[in-house]
Specification:
The protein is globular and about 50 Å long. It is mainly beta and about 250 residues long. It has a four-stranded antiparallel beta sheet with strand order 1-2-3-4, with no helix packed on it. The protein contains one helix and 22 strands. The protein has one helix spanning about 5; strands at about 20-25, 30-35, 40-45, 50-55, 65, 70-75, 80-90, 95-105, 110-115, 120-125, 130-135, 140-145, 150-155, 160-165, 170-175, 185-190, 195-200, 205-210, 215-220, 225-230, 240-245, 245-250. A hairpin with a 6-residue loop joins strand 7 and strand 8.
Length: about 250
């Protein structure tokens, strides 16, 4: 790669993993959430290679995400309540304090934020998907998926549909505006639990990875498989799609 791209590369050696990560919408700040019992959390300004804040929750963290910007963070705890943290101070002297502990949203395993709807979406081990309006603090939707414990959750950035992976090899798609309690789409993708999923920015390509050792590419306009790739040595537990002007890098 060129020298300018080389300067943007960085490597982190972390010991409290596995970690879930999230970026702010402008791509400036990186959130790290370690799932060890100590609950390691860190916010980094990766362009300056500096740590904005770092703290321990002393609780197991399964997932975390930024809200509107880097000053508010939602943290999912599969053993306790959903927590909201707020930044106190700015720059390198910032610190995060617990702002809310939402007891009505316990056992949350995955969290995703919909920035254009001001909705925080959560999926829990109770096989429920919930939407919380962060502007009013009111719960908008609480639906039982009927598919058991979720294994992954991502959002389609093009239409804000939430995509859930399940232990039965099924992928479901949900919307808070749907009155029916059943998912909008149900796809059988793998022979075994779906471990990871990702959707490109255009919202027309999805990739999934499963315990069966396969990574599959799907066309979301026709819900047909475009390709299937075998990963016999290791299962794909984390996937991402990078959108570029010439196409898609998988």
């Amino acid at each position: 790669v060129d020298s300018q791209t080389t300067r943007k590369m960085f490597e982190l050696n972390l010991s409290s993993g596995p970690y879930s990560i999230d970026y702010t919408r402008n791509g400036r700040h990186l959130l790290l959430a370690g799932s060890s019992k100590a609950g390691h959390m860190a916010v980094l300004d990766w362009q300056r290679a500096s740590i904005v804040a770092e703290w321990r929750t002393h609780e197991r963290v399964s997932d975390a995400c930024f809200l509107q910007d880097e000053r508010m963070i939602a943290v999912a705890n599969p053993d306790s309540w959903l927590k909201i943290y707020e930044a106190a101070g700015r720059g390198e002297k910032a610190s995060y304090r617990e702002l809310h502990s939402l007891r009505s949203h316990g056992l949350a395993r995955f969290v995703q934020y919909l920035p254009y709807h001001w909705l925080l979406c959560m999926s829990s081990d109770r096989a429920h998907i919930q939407y919380l309006d962060v502007s009013t603090g009111q719960q908008v939707v609480d639906r039982a998926t009927g598919m058991g414990q979720p294994t992954c959750m991502v959002q389609n950035p093009a239409n804000a549909l939430m995509i859930l992976g399940h232990t039965r090899g099924v992928v479901t798609m949900w919307s808070p505006s749907c009155n029916d309690r059943s998912p909008l789409v149900k796809m059988l993708c793998h022979r075994g639990p779906v471990l990871s999923a990702a959707v490109n920015l255009a919202g027309n390509i999805m990739i999934t990875g499963g315990v069966d050792g396969l990574v599959k590419v799907w066309d979301l306009r026709t819900f047909q498989a475009l390709g299937s790739y075998s990963t016999p040595r290791k299962t794909a537990v984390s996937l991402s799609l990078i959108h570029i002007s010439q196409g898609i890098v998988r």
